[in-house]
Amino acid sequence: MGLHSATWRIHASAVDDLGLLEESLRWLTGDHCELTVERDKSWHGSEQTILETTTKRKKAALKALSRLGDGVLKGLLDEGVSKRIDDEKNMHIRIRLSDLVRGEVVLVSENNSVAAAKGQFKIEAYPGSEPSDVITKTILSMLDS
Fold this sequence. Notes:
Elements: E1 3-13, H1 18-29, E2 34-41, E3 47-55, H2 58-66, H3 70-79, E4 90-96, H4 97-100, E5 116-123, H5 131-144
Antiparallel strand pairs: 1-3, 1-5, 2-3, 4-5
Helix pairs in contact: 3-5
């Protein structure tokens, strides 16, 4: 068991460097990702671009999770992963965008409103297994290797 997929999303304004953001997302998601770019208007009316990378390959999704690094993975375990998992068995993570473009991964705390890349990892959990237990075992196996 592990992950079914991994998705990272960034909401960018008209003044953001889309090439740099795209490169950062591709690094974070890995080689086997699909990139979608959607241009629209924000709720306030200004132009925005939504960049999204997705991988639906299980090994690639695990690799994308491991790219968070040991420190972040340990931090996720320390704070408890269960509060990050929704009813659809997705684990949600937000990382600081200003650090990501420098090749660093730093978790964003709940009460911090900074520009962030939003990650969603679909947990491979079946009836009878608890998604939080599955993702905890998956992270622990990454830390042990």
